[in-house]
Design goal:
Elements: H1 8-21, H2 24-34, E1 39-40, H3 41-48, H4 52-64, E2 68-73, E3 76-81, H5 86-96
Antiparallel strand pairs: 1-3, 2-3
């Protein structure tokens, strides 16, 4: 489906997803998740070296906006991209950044 074919409610949802993704720390989390199947908060935290509570905060925002999905296995929750095509958005943005 093309962006021009979306209904107003769908456009709002898409905008909310993009807003959630438009944060440097969240982009870092998404890049980590892009290359992996499912990761726990602690596995993500080890790769970006910030407080676990901060990682959890950003994961919650991304999940609430439909960017991520989670799967609980006992006490551990593992996160992944909800839509594999979101990786294309990350790659597109990355290729558009001007390097100095």
């Amino acid at each position: 489906m093309k962006l021009k074919d979306l209904q107003p409610k769908q456009l709002e949802e898409a905008a909310e997803m993009l807003k959630a993704m438009a944060h440097p720390m969240r982009m870092s989390i998404l890049v980590i998740l892009e290359g992996n199947d499912k990761l726990s908060v602690s596995e993500i935290q080890k790769q970006i070296n910030i407080k676990q509570s901060t990682v959890s905060h950003h994961l919650r925002i991304l999940k609430d906006k439909g960017v991520l999905e989670s799967e609980r296995n006992g006490r551990k929750v593992r996160y992944s991209l909800k839509h594999a095509k979101l990786a294309n958005v990350l790659n597109c943005v990355g290729s558009c950044v001007i390097k100095n």
